[in-house]
Task: structure prediction
Amino acid sequence: MYDFLWLVPTLPFLGFLILALFGKKLGKTLSAFVGVGSIGISALITILIGIRFLSSPPEGDAFVQTLWTWIAVDRFNVNIALHLDALSLVFTFVITFVGFWIHLYSVEYMADDESFSRFFAYMNLFVGAMLLLVLGDNLLLLYLGWEGVGLCSYLLIGFWYKDSANGYAARKAFIVTRVGDAAMAIGLFLLFYSFGTLNIQEILTQAPQTWSVGNNLAVIATLLLLGGAVGKSAQLPLQVWLPDAMAGPTPTSALIHAATMVTAGVYLIARMHGIYELAPVSMFVVAIVGAATLLIAGFAGLTQVDIKRVLAYSTISQIGYMFLALGVGAWSAAIFHFMIHAFFKALLFLGAGAIILAQHHEQNMFKMGGLAKALPVTFWTFLIGSGSLAALPLVTAGFYSKDAIIWFAWSAEGGNIYLWAAAVFGAFITGFYTFRMVFVTFFGQQKIDVSHFPKWTIHVPLIVLAFFALFGGFIELPGTMGHFTLFSDFLKSALPAMEEVAHENVSLEYFSQILTAVLALVSVYLAYVLYLKKPQIVTNFTDTGFGKGLQQFFLSGLGFDWLYERLFIRPYVWIARTNKRDFIDLFYVFLPWMSRQFHYAFSYTQSGKVRRYILGIALGAVVSITIVVIL
Amino acid sequence: MSDTLYYLLIIVGVLVVMLTIAALLIWYERRMLALWQDRYGPNRVGPFGLMQVMADMVKIFFKEDWIAPFADKWVFIFAPTIIVVAVLLGFAVVPFAPGIVVADMNIGLLYFLAMSSLGAYSILLGGISSNNKYSLLGSLRGAAQVISYEVFMGISLMGVVILSDSFSLVKIVEAQKNMWFVIPQFIGFVIFFIAGVAETHRAPFDLPEAESELVAGFHSEYSGMKFGMFFVGEYLGITLISAMIATFFFGGWLGPSFLPPVVWFFIKTFAFITLFILLRASLPRPRYDQLMSLGWKILLPLSLVNLLVTAAIKLAIGG
Amino acid sequence: MSSISLNTGLVIASILFFLGFLGVMIRRNILFMLISVEIMLNAAGLAFIFAGASHNAPDGQVMFIFILTMAAAEVAVGLALLIQVYQKFKTLDSDAASNMRG
Amino acid sequence: MTILFYIAAIIAIISTIMVITRTNVIHALLYMVVSLLATAVMFFLIGAPFIAALEIMIYAGAITVLFVFVVMMLNLGEEAVKQEKQWLSFSGWIFPAFLSLILLLEVIFIISSSGSVPISGKVIDPKLVGQSLFTTYLIGVELSAILLLAGIIGAYHLARRKKKVVHRFLELEGAEE
Result:
């Protein structure tokens, strides 16, 4: 079964090729079959491989499939090789499985779009690149997938390129992530410089022997990799691109937020955990970044009116949780939250897409309302997703995964009470803005007619994902509730476990859990009061000058765009403008000038008089033969 | 030294004999034409009008040697000599009999072709130096005709070369001991004969000098001895072509031994000269485009096919 | 038999060649230029023949035949062009056909 | 033999000089023929009689005749000669002549700096040439055939007079404009 691993990333690429080359001729039905089918078969193979992996793990808990040699220059040898271990299996599973449901959903969502096959081509390429990223056994292949993902996000965000705003958003996403990628590339150079190889496993085994804990190079390398990770995963300070990325079609957003792209950073840090453990400073920075991001994104999420932007900020916030978990060393908790998040965030985006489709492509949720009756399936699944996001205690998967992170933020080796407090407060905010969205959208008066009632292609993905968002959490239960550790046991082969350190203080853990649960419920009630029962409290507050200012501040994502505009863009543009005629530019102005002068000189020789040409030949012959004779 | 003397003798002998024959041919042609056209021909000067040649010679020698003032003088003078020289040089390779040959070159056949192609200059230069539109037209025709017919004249002889395995005329003659090449190379013979008529621009292919259209064509402006040169050149050409036909296709000097080889050779040659004259007496002149299309569209392909078939048979037999 | 050497032959060939070359350079008349080109080709063939003769090999003559072929084709096309030029410009001045200069 | 060879060479060179300096095309062509005949004599003397015959047949007999033919077709008069005289000015040829001379001297220097091989003058049979042509150089022969075909087609196409399809009245109107 393992031998079929290569098919997993190949099929989406094949689908992309077919769609890109023959998309126009295939027609919509065939395009959909190719687009969805390739991911579907990939998902099926992944699941079969996963079952095999669970029943009889490969030797060394990892399966490596070397396809061919990519580059071989002196010491620099890079293979096209796939590395499958528990970590990459989880990612592969999520990418293909969630990706499949998103693809299926897209068939209906994009049904009326004229660029139907182009959309599926991009989506397939996206999935393929992401699979390459998580399955690549060396950092260069990972980087290839990494950039492929970046390219696809650019293509998909700017999918409706006729609107220049979408193109702007696409460029913004591309350029901002490029900042991180540059840092990551330097990090890769540094790693290659230190270890002479880019193979991940070799680096991980060599690192502890080469570097002592706290080694400067290790810190620098990990911080540079972190730069790449924050760029891709939209963490502070490079989070600004993700809310704008909502310009793309909603399934794209689902794919970016749930299965691919933004989780690449999480994967990178989890994958390179070996060297992060050698750099506690970097770990701490990761935790700080995660905590700060989850709070800032949470605040920004509080005031958004666009339903997709709420979800975007919630993603940033949830990824922040994952970074927090990575930072404190709770590797499996981060991956667990990643998986659960993938389920409920995909569900929420697809639900939001269904709503937007039903509301004449209106995205402002304050113009909606009362959709619970009109779209019952969407409502209930959306509610489940929201509950999972808000971590409603006991019944939702999100509770278990988030609870693990919150507890580890305190109890783990790198954790402390401040990080814990930030995580708990973040959970409260999350619950609040999530249910603000639910109440505003589904309750109250219906304001716009429902224009599109979803069919089975939308409903089935929603229900399946809702099932996982609800019950996916039971594969890993905290120590206080049965201590069921299937998931972390599974991951133990790839990532170091944390349990022994974490579960010493049971009463504290109970306190933390109960506090989180209560806060989540309170936040839901608060949202109910403020947005359904007495909305005038909010309007009264926002009418005051301070309230209005605060609302604007939060709405703009805490002014990061404003800040970057002034801090980077304007000075850069100013420098570029004032430096228009610099030395280098003069050189490049001189080059065409010179070639033009030569052109004039030579065109003068082109007199059309054959005898002149022959005279030229004679002169040339004299010169060259004279040289020969003299030499 | 005696060898050199022998060669000198042959050279002088050939020159004298050929020039004499050429002169006599003038009388011979007129007599033959008259015979076929039921009239007397020259019959007043000497027995059978034989001295008519001498009379003509005297006339030509004493006529004013006039050069048209608008002509290109040196070329005008030079032109008539070319044909005489070229044809006389052509006789150098003709094997009159075993041992009686000026130069038995191993490329004799090619040499003959080269010389006959040089003959074309005579017409060309004569016409162009005359600065006369009829002459110009005549020499245009002549040049085109000679170039065109030269092509397959050479090709038609290649069959002979294949059969005899040599370019040398002596060897070609010797190769015909058992069978004259006219039998296996009948097509080649016909083509060569037609091309020969055209090469010497004799009637019916006398378009360069067609009296009725171009008032004597390229030599309109010529008179006196220079005209005589053209005249003699033409008869020399006929003799050369006839000799060549005899050599290539009719076994040259070969023949029953009751007559010496030289006599056989001259008999054969005279037979073809007579055939030339008979052609003039009997055939009308074709149009210029007919001449050209005959050459390019019929004779050239035919000669190529002949060459191809001959070569193929030779290969198949394995000679 | 004779004291002709390869060098003598090559010198003769190069003299002829450069005379042809000079002809191409100094003549304005396309006809003369073509004639000069023929001289050059012939000189090149001459050099080949000398080289072949110095080795007693037929290759030089083969090369000459190829040059001959080329010369024939070149003359045919060249003269056809010349006629066209003459019909178009009413002159054989090679400078007249310089319309396509840059 | 050697003397004959040098005489032929000198004749060839002198007549070639005459070719490039004549103002009358016909005279130039006549000198060209003389030069070619002299060359043919050289060929004959150094053991290439086959090529000598070809030289006369094709260069002198066909190519040069073609030139003469074209000259006749163009029918250039006295004015062409005058024109040539005008074109052949001293200042026009002195520099190219200087260049050619330098080139020639350099080439002669190069030639003479290498060891010389005497030419035996042994006759190379046409048969040998033919065998060489149709074995070693077979591809060359085929290519020559294609070249000649291309030459024929090219010459035919180029020399064809473009037929004017405009009606004569229309042409008149055009002329008035």
